[in-house]
């Protein structure tokens, strides 16, 4: 009897538990025309529990005792709905699914609030994380194929420049002494180093590319535009994504992300991305391919919600890159104005040397100095959002670092010209931004904030000559140049340090004069201070007291040291007028005065006739930017977007990078061009033709010129030019084209899809194709007929099945027609005539599997 009672009580307890915790969730699923959807799939996310709707669209599913939970509601041909359930609803849920053949209205946070991109009076392109993943755009270099206004040039991570509308960074080797003109933000944190753009994206939700000056919206001044990247946030509902890709050249990429609740008010998210690939260029000396990929990245986030009005997010990330890579291939030889014995072909003939190939696209090198491009980038951040009144007060505090450990073969040959060329760097930064954004009155909204950054960068470099240096540096017929061991092991140790601080107050208001007509004035006050130290000491080579031999050594490398400190303040601002002519037409016009901070040279200076550094070049004047833009955003017919923008930017004291003929000027030096002008037009379009076909495209026309630049460096082919017995060092290039500026660039893509099931999952089978093209551009600060990158077009395609839950698969191919093209051309150090190319990837293909819970 006692046992029976125990059994009864046990059964009652189980029933009570089930009733209390496994309550039913009921609902109705309809279309946006209020038509019931029969056989819609209803799933508790992260579990195998599911049900389907009946003929009236009704469903009932047990909660399984887990709250909060997320319901996924799926139906072929409709967008999947996600509903977070925190409590059992008292009445049936009403769930409306939208057909997939409707254009999704993208929302952005560029103006520090959530709004539809078509309502924002800014030229902005949006690439969602899903779009980037589908297109294989796992870094900024791939994003430029989707947003043709973006240009990225990288001969290695340190020497990376990112431009928008052909402006932002000087074309060529990077100098730490100036600020980039394109802001790069991840979850509100400013990344000061352009090397960050070469690393893989980690768990990205959305990428917003803003074009034109944005100084009144962002903490760090941005004269050319900004990347505003948001990561996927922690969720209290469990979820996970796993993805793996395989391809030719042993390509392997793995991604994983997991999220869920860690407590009642704490949620977490942990993400990983790793990419490996064999090299695409063969080193005939080592027998190993070079230019490999070897990237790993981690990102962790904790979300704490102490109240319903406050969110606190703590994030940390670490990314490492260890490729055997970034080797450049000799692309050609330019005859210079130097004597015949100083031409590259004559030099290598005397040294009994031949290039491994005269065709760069044979992808063969014989470099004797190993290529190393190791970097570590990471940091921590604390972001606090608190709703106050009609807006949100945000504080973003961050610390970041970047370590760079390189080795290069800057003569691009198998000769020991430069036996060592390495400039390891450590950079750290602290940033703080506080801003308030929201509705101030019934007619006025806006954003106001303060920003501070303090960063330090230190480089301890080494550059050392090899046994062939004498012949490449030989500048006379004196037999002393052949003195055994004179230059072998002769080099410089460099100590370059810079500390840069910047503080700003910024703000913009949106004043609704009428419901359709708005005025948006913005202001910014900036203070910038930079302190720099540069010192290099010679060492090694033949130890001698012979003045003639010492003079030869000094002509190659000499001691140099200088210090510079400078500061500057600036008021800048903008005003935008916007008129919403109808629900489908939004017109805006912007005028802006912007500013790029003062710069300092920290990579060596050219020497004057007395052999002393030209210290007058140590400080570079700030840029003054005057920008005008007119745009119209339209939806000409249902499920379409057609946006057109016209712009003109004038820059006084344009900061440009100059490649010097002296070896000791390690990465070129900075100079000011008097005036630059860039003007053009942009087109963005998206069309949903039917439930099965979508098309999108973008195009840009850019006319970029030096209006006045009288002290430009000589083009490569004019190196050594003598006029009336006088050595010429500079050239007037006024009226010539800016480097890196293609007249035309564009992208076009489309997708054809249909409903399907794969391993029991409802989803879409699809075929997608896209292409990217750009016209020729100059790859030299002073236009050189040898350093012109020819225009090219590449095409990509994907075929597969995708589902919001379960298994997705796609087969992909990039550069399907195996187009040979250069991304950049650059002269060898010393300007001896040979120049190298950064090669675009040849055809690659593979398969990607993704599983979502």
UniProtKB/TrEMBL annotation:
The keyword Ion transport applies. It comes from the Bacteria. Pfam families: CarbopepD_reg_2, Plug, TonB_dep_Rec_b-barrel. PROSITE patterns: TONB_DEPENDENT_REC_3. Keywords: Cell outer membrane, Ion transport, Iron, Iron transport, Membrane, TonB box, Transmembrane, Transmembrane beta strand, Transport. Gene3D superfamilies: Carboxypeptidase-like, regulatory domain (2.60.40.1120), TonB-dependent receptor, beta-barrel domain (2.40.170.20). It is found in: Cell outer membrane. It is a multi-pass membrane protein. Residues 370-816 form the TonB-dependent receptor-like beta-barrel domain. Residues 117-226 form the TonB-dependent receptor plug domain. Transmembrane segments: none annotated. Belongs to the TonB-dependent receptor family. This is Iron complex outermembrane recepter protein.
């Amino acid at each position: 009897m006692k046992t029976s009672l125990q059994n009864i009580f046990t059964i009652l307890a189980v029933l009570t538990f089930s009733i209390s915790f496994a309550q039913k969730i009921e609902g109705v699923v309809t279309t946006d025309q209020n038509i019931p959807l029969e056989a819609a799939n209803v799933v508790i996310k992260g579990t195998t529990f599911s049900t389907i709707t009946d003929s009236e669209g009704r469903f009932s599913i047990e909660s399984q005792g887990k709250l909060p939970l997320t319901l996924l509601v799926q139906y072929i041909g409709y967008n999947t709905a996600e509903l977070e359930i925190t409590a059992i609803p008292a009445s049936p849920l009403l769930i409306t699914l939208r057909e997939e053949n409707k254009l999704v209205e993208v929302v952005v946070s560029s103006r520090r609030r959530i709004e539809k991109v078509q309502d924002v009076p800014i030229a902005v392109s949006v690439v969602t994380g899903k779009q980037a993943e589908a297109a294989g755009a796992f870094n900024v270099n791939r994003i430029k194929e989707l947003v043709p206004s973006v240009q990225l040039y990288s001969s290695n991570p340190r020497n990376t420049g990112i431009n928008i509308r052909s402006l932002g960074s000087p074309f060529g080797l990077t100098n730490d002494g100036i600020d980039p003109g394109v802001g790069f933000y991840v979850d509100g944190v400013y990344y000061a180093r352009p090397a960050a753009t070469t690393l893989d994206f980690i768990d990205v939700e959305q990428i917003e590319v803003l074009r034109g000056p944005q100084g009144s919206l962002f903490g760090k001044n941005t004269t050319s535009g900004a990347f505003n990247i948001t990561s996927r946030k922690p969720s209290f509902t469990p979820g996970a994504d796993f993805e793996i890709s395989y391809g030719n050249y042993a390509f392997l990429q793995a991604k994983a992300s997991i999220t869920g609740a860690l407590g009642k008010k704490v949620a977490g998210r942990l993400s990983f991305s790793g990419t490996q690939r064999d090299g695409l260029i063969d080193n005939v000396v080592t027998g190993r391919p070079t230019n490999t990929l070897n990237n790993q990245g981690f990102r962790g986030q904790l979300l704490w919600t102490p109240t319903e009005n406050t969110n606190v997010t703590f994030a940390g990330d670490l990314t490492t890159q260890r490729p055997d890579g970034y080797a450049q291939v000799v692309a050609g030889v330019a005859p210079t104005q130097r004597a015949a014995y100083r031409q590259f072909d004559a030099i290598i003939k005397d040294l009994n040397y031949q290039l491994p190939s005269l065709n760069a696209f044979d992808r063969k090198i014989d470099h004797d100095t190993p290529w190393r491009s190791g970097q570590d980038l990471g940091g921590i951040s604390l972001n606090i959002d608190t709703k106050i009144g009609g807006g949100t007060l945000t504080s973003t505090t961050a610390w970041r670092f970047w370590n760079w450990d390189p080795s290069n073969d800057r003569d691009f040959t198998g000769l020991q010209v430069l036996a060592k060329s390495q400039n390891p760097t450590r950079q750290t930064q602290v940033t703080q931004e506080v801003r308030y954004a929201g509705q101030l009155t019934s007619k006025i909204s806006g954003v106001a904030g303060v920003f501070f950054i303090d960063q330090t960068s230190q480089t301890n470099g080494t550059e050392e000559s090899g046994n062939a240096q004498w012949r490449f540096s030989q500048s006379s017929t004196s037999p002393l140049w052949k003195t055994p061991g004179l230059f072998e092991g002769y080099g410089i140790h460099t100590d370059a340090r810079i500390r840069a601080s910047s503080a700003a107050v910024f703000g913009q208001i949106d004043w609704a004069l009428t419901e359709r007509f708005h005025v948006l004035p913005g202001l910014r006050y900036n203070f910038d201070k930079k302190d720099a130290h540069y010192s290099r000491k010679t060492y090694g080579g033949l130890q001698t007291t012979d003045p003639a031999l010492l003079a030869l050594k000094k002509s190659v490398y000499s001691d140099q040291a200088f210090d510079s400190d400078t500061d500057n303040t600036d008021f800048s601002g903008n005003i935008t007028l916007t008129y919403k002519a109808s629900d489908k037409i939004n017109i805006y016009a912007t005028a802006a005065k912007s500013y790029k901070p003062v710069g300092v040279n920290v990579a060596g200076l050219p020497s004057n006739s007395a052999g002393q550094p030209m210290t007058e070049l140590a400080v570079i004047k700030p840029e003054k930017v005057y920008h005008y833009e007119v745009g119209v955003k339209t939806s000409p017919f249902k499920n379409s977007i057609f946006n057109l923008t016209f712009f003109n930017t004038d820059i006084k004291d344009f900061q440009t990078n100059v490649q010097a003929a002296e070896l000791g000027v390690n990465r070129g030096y900075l100079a000011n061009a008097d005036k630059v002008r860039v003007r053009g037009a942009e087109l963005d379009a998206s069309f949903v033709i039917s439930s099965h076909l979508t098309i999108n495209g973008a195009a840009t026309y850019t006319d970029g010129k030096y209006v006045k630049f009288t002290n430009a460096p000589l083009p490569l082919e004019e190196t050594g030019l003598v006029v009336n017995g006088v050595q010429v060092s500079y050239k007037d290039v006024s009226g010539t084209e800016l480097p890196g500026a293609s007249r035309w660039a564009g992208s076009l893509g489309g997708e054809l899809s249909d409903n399907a099931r794969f391993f029991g999952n409802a989803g879409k089978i699809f075929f997608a194709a896209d292409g990217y093209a750009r016209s020729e551009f100059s790859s030299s600060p002073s236009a050189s007929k040898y350093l012109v990158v020819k225009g090219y077009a590449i095409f990509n395609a994907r075929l597969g099945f995708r589902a919001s839950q379960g298994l997705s698969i796609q087969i992909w191919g990039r550069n399907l027609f195996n187009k040979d093209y250069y991304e950049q051309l650059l002269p060898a150090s010393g300007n001896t005539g040979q120049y190298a190319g950064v090669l675009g990837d040849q055809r690659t293909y593979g398969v990607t599997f993704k599983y979502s819970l």
